[in-house]
Amino acid sequence: MSISGKPRKGNQTNKPKSSLDKKSKDIKISGGESVKQINSTNLKQTNILFYLILIIIPILFFVLLEIGLRMFNYGYDYTQWVNPIPGKFILNPDIAHKYFHNVQNVPYSNQDIFDELKKPNTFRVFVIGESSGAGYPFTPLGAFSRYIQQRLSLEYPDSKIEVINCSMTAINTYTLRDLFPGILDMKPDLVLAYTGHNEYYGALGIGSNESLGTSRGLVNFVIYLEQFKTIQFLRNVMKGVVGLFSGKQETLTGTLMSRMAKDQYIGITSGAYKKGIVQFEGNMRDILEMARQKNVPVILGNLACNLKDQRPFVSMNEKGYPGADFVFKEAKESFAERDFRKADSLFRLAKDLDGLRFRAPTEINTLISTLGKEFNYPVINIDSAFDALSPDHITGNNLMTDHLHPTLNGYEIIGDLFFREMERTNILPKTKPIGLNDKQLDRLTVAHFLFTRIDSVIGEYRIKLLKNDWPYIDKNKKINENILLNPKDRIDSLALSLVYDKINWEFAHRKAAEWYLSKRDYKSFGSVMDVLISQYPIVIEYYDYTINALLRVKDYDDAYGCLIKRNKYEPGAFSCKWLGIINLYKNRVALSQMYLNQSIGFDDHDPQVWYNLAGTYVNENNYTKALEMVNKAISISPDYRDALALRNQLQQALKTK
């Protein structure tokens, strides 16, 4: 009997067997695992490592590719804010390439400049929207944001006012949603939103030639991926490969409006229509939720458009609905019969039935109101205000340049409506206002509105070209553009080059100013330079160019205004000197002394400054101090004739005392 108490098997001996004689499955090691189990574990570990390597290699490849593409500055840089000069930001002029891949001459924002680091007493407002938010066809000067900027600057002179317009032509809420986190990073005091007309045909919209499909989540994910240079590289490779097999691809021509929406009809009963509404609601909800989380105030504006004088672009046959053309005809008849309430209702229905959705349907305005209530953000009724200010209370060509872009007066009205809501909700600078009433401030704002002839011609040409293309007319009915626009002088030619994207806005205005100066039209020259300085206050050369030109013709009043702006932005020896000289000329002695002494602080080797400083002491009968100043001028420039003459006079005067 064994120790265990179990019987033994027969013919079994106590002789130990060699490990070589045993089968591997019977060999035991520490922990009690068999060799087979060890081999199985090793195999599993090897397989895991193999698959990890398979995953890591492509990831590593794309990481290295991304790093390499960035090192060689491949493609576009989509950094949202870029520095035109140190310490200042503008919206990246290339940012629109992130959303447009199939059209040439992509849009850019109004390039409003603001401080990289927000200074104390700064009131910072951002505007988001599309072409009508940007002020088309009068961009950048005609935008309602300019009215708000000017009015705030006049009413709150002790605050630094920054109104940054991020609106762009042919975008929609996909772009605005993508830009909005970067806007919030800039610590806005307020955001103003006027958006919705482009929801179907704006970049990546459901009916756009740039569309990526109907899934809002997928489109926003693709936009997120666009920050990586690898995506740009892969897209360009794919385009190149497709081009090799498909031959020369057709280039989209005509206005951006026609390029973005060619033949993309969307009926009111279609799935595309409903998806466009869902797209707008989802993106706007995301935008407003981001603002609420950051506790940033938002004012929404609903949308106005041309109802009375814009017939539907496309009339479709849809079950349960009359054709848009038929409804528009009925609206005209009701209008002729002076049944304006019925006419307004029919004009709106005709707009909603238009198969080409360039004007936002009524459902978009309803959504704006609903979202405003849900997020507790105020909504201003721009649509109703335009009707109220129109003949017979129906908006038409009186306030619209085309189907939806306001006139200059229309943009001023939008600016005033937003400003009044800012007053009502007390979202205003914290410094003390000057105390004028609304009418006085409005008159002052309009009086200070900067707009020149070239800006007017640019707006006129843009609208003429827009209405000389699809969908306003068929291609075979287009008028020769040289005949249509018929430029008559240098200003017209510059405007023509700009609307054809051959030159940019800044270059056109510089050349216009040079032309006026060559003709000795100093008033027009000064107006154009005022516009340039207003748009690009960081370009010191514009101030100095203007000042020197005006000083040469002794236009001291206009030169003085420009000197004040220049000195406020970047004080220096030159601006302080001339502010001192002009103030001496105007017999404002104390002010003259202040500026001349400031000029010496920047540069004490300018004999003209010492000479004029001597003149201020002459005016005060302080001849001893005057002689001291004039001697310093002569020590720098011994041949300074005026200074030598003044010294002789001062010496004689002191002798007779």
Overview features:
Rossmann fold; 8 strands; 54% helix; disordered N terminus; mainly alpha
In words, what does this structure look like?
By secondary structure, this protein is mostly helical. The protein has 26 helices and eight strands. Among the domains are: 45 residues; 303 residues, 3-Layer(aba) Sandwich (Rossmann fold), CATH 3.40.50; 39 residues, no CATH class. The chain is 54% helix and 5% strand. It has a five-stranded parallel β-sheet, sandwiched between helices. A hairpin with a 5-residue loop joins β1 and β2. α3 crosses α13 and α21 packs antiparallel against α22. It is globular.
Secondary structure class reads mainly alpha
Q: How is the largest sheet built, in terms of strand order?
A: 5-4-6-7-8
Terminal Cα separation, in Å?
148 Å
Structure annotation, total helices: 26
* CATH structural class of the domain at 81-311 and 358-429: Alpha Beta
Per DSSP, what share of the residues sits in E-state strands of 2 or more residues?
A: 5-15%
Q: Fill in the CATH topology of the domain at 81-311 and 358-429.
A: Rossmann fold
List the helices and strands and how they pair.
Elements: H1 35-71, E1 81-82, E2 88-91, E3 114-115, E4 122-129, H2 131-134, H3 144-155, E5 160-165, H4 173-185, E6 190-194, H5 216-225, H6 229-246, H7 256-261, H8 271-293, E7 298-301, H9 324-336, H10 340-353, H11 362-375, E8 379-380, H12 382-388, H13 408-424, H14 438-447, H15 453-466, H16 481-485, H17 490-499, H18 505-518, H19 522-535, H20 540-552, H21 556-569, H22 573-585, H23 589-602, H24 607-619, H25 623-636, H26 641-656
Parallel strand pairs: 4-5, 4-6, 6-7, 7-8
Antiparallel strand pairs: 1-2, 2-3
Helix pairs in contact: 3-13, 3-14, 4-8, 8-11, 9-10, 15-17, 17-18, 18-19, 19-20, 20-21, 21-22, 22-23, 22-24, 23-24, 24-25, 25-26
